[in-house]
Specification:
173 residues; mainly alpha; 43% helix; 0% strand; elongated
Length: 173
């Protein structure tokens, strides 16, 4: 009991406290309904304006074009990445930058197509080597020419010039 005589204490009832009905989660909330913009539960953060790339609310997103030096850099990355990691770098670069630069799109597709051509050549050379019991393995020396062509392509892209492989199956147009 409190020692303050100013506040009367409620009388204590003997026995157990009254039972509360079991509450289920969300029992006191109304059924789900679509919220309108600007309406939300009190205390909840309100959604902001749509991303607009700096041109005002609701404007569609427009990718920014690449600078000429960035175009050359990504063109070189597509060619050199194909030497090191096969078809993954040119594919990713093409998918990411195809809307931002015509040059990068063109060169990444060219590198991707050439890499796919080299993969087909590897499969064919492996079959030839197996059929000839290893005598056809010297044909794999032709793959050195593929690496040389990819390096030439990277050098040309570094200068800002497009490069077309002399032997290429252009699957991706």
């Amino acid at each position: 009991m409190s020692e303050n005589p100013q506040q009367p204490q409620p009388p204590q009832q003997p026995g157990p406290p009254p039972q509360q009905p079991a509450q289920t989660p969300y029992q006191d909330q109304p059924p789900y309904q679509e919220q309108q913009p600007g309406q939300g539960a009190p205390g909840q953060p309100q959604p902001g304006p749509a991303y607009s790339a700096g041109y005002g609310p609701g404007a569609p997103y427009q990718p920014q074009p690449l600078t000429p030096s960035d175009e050359r850099m990504w063109g070189v990355f597509a060619q050199v990445g194909a030497i090191v990691f096969s078809f993954i770098p040119p594919l990713v670069i093409w998918l990411v930058f195809k809307d931002r630069s015509r040059f990068v799109e063109q060169e990444a597709k060219e590198a991707l197509n050439f890499t796919i051509t080299v993969i087909f050549a590897n499969i064919a050379l492996t079959i030839i080597t197996l059929i000839t019991f290893g005598f056809g393995s010297f044909l794999f020396l032709a793959l050195i020419g593929a690496v040389v062509l990819q390096i030439l392509a990277a050098v040309e892209n570094g200068k800002g010039a497009p490069y077309r492989y002399p032997v290429n199956i252009r699957i991706i147009k």
